[in-house]
Amino acid sequence: MQELTISKFKATCCRVLAELGKSGVPLRITRRGIPIAEIVAPRVLSDAEWIGSMRGAIEIHGDIVGPVGAFGGWE
Fold first, then answer.
1. 22 in a domain, yes or no?
2. Which of 23, 27, 31, 32 could cross-link with 39 by S-S, CB 3.0 to 4.6 Å?
3. What are phi and psi of 20, to 5 degrees?
């Protein structure tokens, strides 16, 4: 993990983030030697990973296309 001071990060933010995206090496931002943030590159999901990824997460009970309430009392 690389470390960078907050002032250096502010001055070179765009370049540092571009390098992080290419290398994938996490970055720790420090202020006076104390870590205040860690930045990691996002994980890129392939189509096979996200399609169907919520399978089994919900369960449907009852009729989901019928009317919600009774309409008999309306005029």
1. yes
2. 27
3. -60, -40
Tokens matching residue 16: 């540092």
How many CA atoms lie within 13 Å of 25's alpha carbon, on the beta-carbon side?
A: 7
Domain presence at residue 21 = yes
Q: Say if pTM beats, i.e. exceeds, 0.85.
A: no
Residues 13-56: tens digit of each pLDDT = 999 999 998 998 999 999 999 999 999 988 776 666 677 777 88
What domain count does the chain have?
1
Range of the domain at 13: 1-31
Specify which residues 28 forms β-bridges with. 3, 38
